[in-house]
Amino acid sequence: EYHSIPLEELRPHIYFYAGIDAVRHVFRVASSLDSMVVGEPQILGQVKEAYDKAVQGSATGLVLNRFMHKAFSTAKRVRTETRIAVSFAAVELARKIFGDLSGKAVMVVGAGEMCELAATHLVENGVSRVLVTNRTFSRAEALAEKFGGKAVGFDSFAKHLDEVDILISSTGAPHHVVTVEAMREAMASRRQKPMFLIDIAVPRDIEPAINDLANVFLYDVDDLQGIVAVNIKERAKEAKKAEEIVNAEVDSFMRWTKTLDVTPTIRQLRDRLEAVRKAELDKTLKVFGDDITKKQKKSLEMMTQAIVNKMLHEPTLHLKRLADDSESDVSVDAVRQVFGLVDEDKKEDPA
Asked: Starting at the edge strand that comes first in sequence, how are the strands of the sheet with 129-133 ordered?
């Protein structure tokens, strides 16, 4: 209406998902399975940013919070359990340049998830030494410890460039943190031994002119995505594994949502039987009057509680099993009707 665009022009470009389809869609988007380049790293950051804004605006609740955190953990499983991530392409490139990665050293500039994942892949493929630098030194230390490596100060990491064969950089800096001058000095100290640089930061961390230096191989995210897209057959196999992970996580989340319907019914059923128990016990105690002792009252209390608990045992188990039943809505509604668990606003006015 604001732009005076007819709805019919927009309709072909609009889609709407609900229920399990919505869950699967968000999980796939967060895992970058819905991206033009499967495995690209930026999309998860965009999803997290959107969620953070929703949280700041108090626009989320129990279900949406659980939903989004499940999406993030699903994306992490896809990245760590498959070779679909762009970070894995960095390993393939490094192997093409160096052949065997055994005995090679890597420096990680930044302690974010993408750097950690790329370093993990490299270590798994033979890299033996890891240096980590980050503006927050404690985070550099934590990541270095994970790889049995060494943390170096962010202000002085350039002095260690000549010690490494591979450099991975992903910081939030608005300017280049690895300069041509620093790399020229490092290459001189290395006597021009080849060095492989991976810049997965946006904006770029590594000065592009470094690529003009002899024996320096600089690649950014766009380069990696191009490599990722080449081996279509292998990518298809990994994408299938990723889809299986997503489907399993979707099923897990949907089972949890079913418990949201079942749990209130269990609670209301217990409350209803407890109210009946107390009312009937009070009637009985009034009949006895002063002819009953405190010990006898306690015995009656315990006996009636035991009866209620035994009566609730099977219905409670049955309701919990319904959480995995695709027809649970119908079954839960039947239980509610059998036990008269009608919401207060739906009760008929006795007048």
From this structure: 150-152, 129-133, 105-109, 166-169, 195-199, 216-220
Strand partners, 106: 130, 166
- 10 Å CB burial of residue 16 (0-12, 13-18, 19+) is exposed
Residue 279: HSE in the Cβ half-sphere, 13 Å Cα cutoff: 6
The label of the residue with tokens 């359990």 reads 81
Amino acid at 323: A
One-letter amino acid at 112 equals G
| 171 within 8 A of 177, measured Cβ to Cβ | yes
Identify the pLDDT of residue 346: 45
Distance in angstroms (rounded) separating the CA atoms of residues 234 and 323: 37
Residue type, 2: Y
The mean per-residue pLDDT over the stretch 207-234 comes to 78
Task: List, in order, residues 6 or more apart from 103 with CB less than 8 Å away.
Answer: 126, 128
Strand 105-109 and strand 129-133: the pairing is: parallel
The pLDDT confidence band at residue 65, using thresholds 50, 70 and 90, is: very high
Q: Where are the beta strands (DSSP E) in the chain?
A: 105-109, 129-133, 150-152, 166-169, 195-199, 216-220
Residues 6 or more apart in contact with residue 249 via CB below 8 angstroms: 27, 70, 73, 74, 77
Contact present, 25 and 34 (Cβ < 8 Å): yes
What is the H or E stretch that residue 147 is in? none
pLDDT at 27: 95
Cα distance between residue 125 and residue 157, in whole Å = 24
Of all residues in the chain, the percent with pLDDT exceeding 90 is 45
Length of the chain: 351
Q: What is the model's pTM?
A: 0.51
Q: In sequence order, which ranges of 125-231 are alpha helices (DSSP H)?
A: 137-146, 180-189, 221-230
Residue 98 C-alpha from the chain's centroid: 34
Most confident of the ranges 111-125, 146-160, 252-266, 317-331:
146-160
Question: Three-class SS of residue 21?
Answer: helix
The SS3 of residue 125 is coil
